[in-house]
Design brief:
The two termini are 13 Å apart. The protein has a single domain, classed as Aldolase class I (TIM Barrel, Alpha-Beta Barrel). By secondary structure, the chain is of the alpha/beta class. It has an eight-stranded parallel beta barrel with strand order 1-2-3-4-5-6-7-8, surrounded by four helices. It is 34% helix and 17% strand.
């Protein structure tokens, strides 16, 4: 396949979801720390909120060229909101935040209004939203630059990444990109074998990796193959 990625930055995002204890996270980081990084690839690790301090400290001590993101942010500013982590708090540990993921929309009933407030609060606190859409025509709040296309059929080991689907993914990415000059990432069962099918295309500016990021060696393979 012809390399069409020259000159562009690839975003490789690890979404750990609700996985890893602190000991497990430290083991993951020990296995990952030998990754030297590449100028053309922006690596963003999104561990659970409780592990952000551990990751931040490890990255600083080992001078790793990677960034951190949170998996969620409150729709509220600071105040009487039990159990919420607001954008101001998250900014102490991370530069990015995932917003609009299908799991939060479907399992936790997040609405477009709630999600828009999360984007607004994030941008106000200099957090960069990584905004998920499940269809190419979903409304994207003002200020968003990074958009992740995650078609429902391609999530969690479904049919994503196979040749029959790639044209549909590229058409959707192009539609999103043209609508707002966004950088479009792909999220849907990304693994070392299929990652280059997406990152080698001009329409795609990176990927979000779920299950395959839980083992450091596998995630490094994803990065290297991208």
């Amino acid at each position: 396949m012809q390399d069409v990625t020259q000159g562009k930055i690839l975003y490789i995002v690890a979404n750990f979801k609700s996985n890893k204890t602190e000991d497990e996270a430290k083991n993951w980081l020990d296995n990952f720390k030998n990754y030297k990084g590449e100028n053309a690839k922006q690596i963003i690790l999104c561990p659970p909120f409780t592990l952000l301090p551990t990751f931040k400290n490890f990255i600083k001590i080992n001078s790793l060229q990677i960034s951190l993101g949170a998996q969620n942010v409150s729709q509220f500013d600071e105040g009487p909101y039990t159990g919420e982590e607001n954008a101001k708090q998250i900014k102490e540990f991370a530069d990015y935040v995932l917003i609009g993921h299908s799991e939060r929309r479907n399992l936790l009933n997040e609405t477009d209004e709630m999600i828009s407030e999360k984007v607004r609060n994030s941008i106000s606190n200099e957090l960069i939203p990584i905004f998920f859409v499940q269809t190419p025509d979903r409304a994207i709040p003002s200020g968003v630059e990074l958009v992740v296309y995650e078609p429902p059929s391609s999530i969690s080991g479904a049919s994503g990444g196979i040749a029959d689907d790639i044209d549909d993914v590229l058409k959707a990415a192009e539609k999103i990109k043209v609508a707002g000059q966004y950088q479009v990432l792909y999220g849907g069962s990304v693994n070392p074998a299929n990652v280059n099918d997406f990152t080698s295309r001009t329409q795609i500016s990176g990927v979000v990796v779920g299950k395959e990021s839980l083992e450091a060696d596998e995630f490094i393979r994803v990065i290297e193959n991208a």
